[in-house]
Amino acid sequence: MPILSKLPNVGTTIFTVMSKLASDCGAINLSQGFPGFECDPELLDLVNKYMKAGFNQYAPMSGIPVLRERIADKTKLVYDVDLNSENEVTVVSGATEALYAAVTAVVRRGDEVILFDPAYDSYAPAIALNGGIPVYVPLEMPDFSVDWEKVKSAISDTTRLIMVNTPHNPSGYVWTQEDLDTLADLIQDTDILVVSDEVYEHITFDGRKHLSLVTHPTLRDRTFVCGSFGKTFHVTGWKIGYCLAPPQLTAEFRKVHQFLTFSTATPLQYALADYLAEPSRYLTLPDYYQQKRDLFCEGLKESPFKFTPAQGSFFQMVSYAHLSKESDYDLSVRLTKEIGVASIPISVFFSNKKDHKILRFCFAKKDSELYVALDKLKEIKL
User: Domain residues of the chain, as ranges?
Assistant: First the structure.
């Protein structure tokens, strides 16, 4: 039976490809963005507690009340923003679902959606599946900052949505207050909405503060902010995230969410609600991950790569353009096979697959793994 694919150009993601190759080759997997260490045992004990207590049936569609309240409390503590947990906070099955539900809620056939290029690979398919048209605005090299004149030129009468990602994946760029203010100025007299992917909100370095779009009065009224407990608490396999949005947008978001997953794993929600009661568990994350970034970058100084330390996220990009003309995909595969360290070629994040001779490494791994990987990277010959 012939099938006309809705995503004819989509295949297996590079993250799956490189993780499998790393496994097949026995390589250290610094490719896919997941922590290489366990979460806090206390969090596991809490899950076990609620499973044994019988909290194993459907949770409310929008999330259990106590978890939504704790998310609102966290938002107040970190960003000094008051949210109504009843109609502005929704618990979902991972940030990817939040992003998809937000796009689906507001994008109709023919609507244009502005993406900053390079972009995480789930954005464009979500737009395409809803009949939208991706419009790519290239970020400025080498720091991957936003050229706001290019954004202004990209806005048209059919622009419905702008998708933001800060801290940015793959580059780690962290948006500034000027970025937020300029975006607000551009869209305040329009009907343009925003989806903001902020899954690395608690992973910023060198004293930088993550400026959530929920902190800006103009942007807050028209933005879906998508977050992730998986990234924050080292439990990416749990697939639990959340969406913060004003009541009108939340209502539309939940209409989609209830027919995607309906609800999210009940005992995990109760465990996270208890765990969030102690703010130090997320407030200490910048220092924790900066130690890993600094360790990795210090080791990279003895390698042939060039790099600027990431501003946020748990990824470090490195350039080899001064050393070789080999494609980033070929090099990432070769390094996995020959020296046993897997990375991601960042050309896959670009709409045109342009090769800037840059690889992305994930440093959210055990220090022992990072030391071994660095020893191998120091010895490469290009």
Answer: 14-32+284-378, 41-281
